[in-house]
Write a structure and sequence with these properties.
about 350 residues, alpha+beta, Butyryl-Coa Dehydrogenase, subunit A, domain 1, Butyryl-CoA Dehydrogenase, subunit A, domain 2, Butyryl-CoA Dehydrogenase, subunit A, domain 3, three-stranded mixed β-sheet, 11 strands, about 50% helix, binds flavin-adenine dinucleotide
């Protein structure tokens, strides 16, 4: 398979990988092929995922919060984090989602905005995968526009009391700790709400059309009382949650190149073995054109991801590149995702017109 994948690397971008990064790619790819790929059809079909078991395995692999430093995190480069996301999403986007929600949303929020006590309490366990986190920003009526959120936190003595509901929260029902964003009289603030806190419940969303191999939940906060120490002290306003989303989007930019690559490899495999009119359908020029366009479209996506990794490395302090080149990076991320989407669309038409 590695040879088949190498042939899709038309610009020989893998040649630029350091020995260390090549080893990481091969290690994560082997884990993905041996441990994830054999089960993904069932997980997707059943709409379920043994997320807690997998989290322990991802933790042992060293990919949870791998781009963060200290507190048991690997301190890997942005490019290494991207490579891991690519190889995991080559199997399924829901699996990459498990890794990036844990590392880029929940762990990053605690790492960037939490108190020293929060970091010591949660990050080492989350890096190991023995504790899971979720990130509660979206609400039923507040998706792209999180500034319109209705979940509120009010002071009662030294406590905070949270009331509201969150929707589409990855790992919500299985998380040990939820990063919950809520409106206060002083603006949006983040809070750590532990599983089992009275008034805090989660319910899974079933019958999803996509991202089925991923736990997605709604969170209900019914007058949930947490101590003042549950507030993330460094998060002020929407900038807090939005910077977490930037971290996650960076991993997604890389991840989609894995999904696109795998879709193309599967399509080539099918097109070269499916025979119609006396020859493999890959023998027809119309099919070849679709495959060629898909293969060519993969490269801008991968180049964009690699460039963002380089920009991230150069930024000081080392953080998601949207901070150093805001508009261009976001546009590139979208272009990268779109190009991978288009490529996948082309391959779908080969499987079935
Ligand atoms: C499987 C899954 C897992 C998720 N996990 C999490 C999670 O862990 N934590 C969390 O907080 N959220 C999570 N989300 C929520 C996700 O972030 C939201 O779905 C997303 O923010 C979009 O919100 P929405 O679905 O309400 O769409 P809407 O905001 O209603 O948007 C609908 C459409 O309108 C478009 N649109 C909206 N505003 C504009 C505009 N200004 N200009 C042009 N087009 C616009 C959007 O692009 C979209 O196509 C998850 C969602 C899914 C499906």
């Amino acid at each position: 398979m590695t040879d088949a994948l190498s042939r899709l690397d038309l610009l020989d971008l893998d040649a630029d990988l350091s020995d260390e990064n090549r080893l990481l790619r091969d290690t994560v790819r082997k884990f993905a092929d041996d441990r994830l790929r054999p089960h993904i059809r069932d997980w997707f079909e059943d709409g379920s995922l043994p997320a807690r078991d997998l989290a322990l395995e991802f933790g042992a692999l060293g990919v949870l919060g791998m781009h963060l430093t200290g507190y048991g995190c690997a301190g890997a480069s942005a490019t290494q984090y991207g490579i891991a996301c690519t190889e995991i999403e080559a199997v399924d986007s829901g699996l990459r989602s498990l890794v990036s929600v844990q590392g880029s949303l929940a762990m990053f929020a605690i790492h960037a905005f939490g108190s020293e006590e929060h970091k010591q309490r949660w990050l080492p366990e989350m890096a190991k995968g023995s504790a899971l986190g979720c990130f509660g920003l979206t609400e039923a009526d507040s998706g792209s526009d999180p500034g319109s959120m209705r979940t509120r936190a009010t002071r009662d003595g030294t406590d905070w009391v949270l009331h509201g509901a969150k929707m589409w929260i990855t790992n919500g029902s299985i998380a040990d700790v939820a990063v919950v964003w809520a409106r206060t009289p002083d603006g949006i603030r983040g809070f750590l709400v532990e599983k089992g806190t009275p008034g805090f419940t989660a319910q899974d969303v079933h019958h999803k059309l996509s991202l089925r191999a991923s736990v997605t939940s709604s969170l209900s906060l019914d007058e949930v009382r947490v101590p003042a120490s549950a507030e993330l002290p460094m998060a002020r306003g929407l900038r807090g949650p939005l910077s977490c989303l930037n971290e996650a989007r960076y991993g997604i930019v890389w991840g989609v190149t894995g999904a696109a690559r795998d879709a193309l490899a599967s399509t080539i495999d099918y097109a070269t073995t499916r025979t119609q009119f006396g020859r493999p359908i890959a023998g027809f020029q119309l099919t070849q054109r679709k495959l060629a366009e898909a293969a060519v479209a993969l490269n801008p996506a991968r180049l964009t991801a690699q460039r963002l990794g380089e920009l991230w490395r150069r930024s000081t302090p080392m953080r998601a590149p949207t901070r150093c080149t805001p508009s261009s990076s976001v546009k590139n991320s979208r272009a990268s995702t779109r190009s991978a989407d288009q490529r996948a669309t082309g391959t779908v038409t080969i499987f079935s017109n």
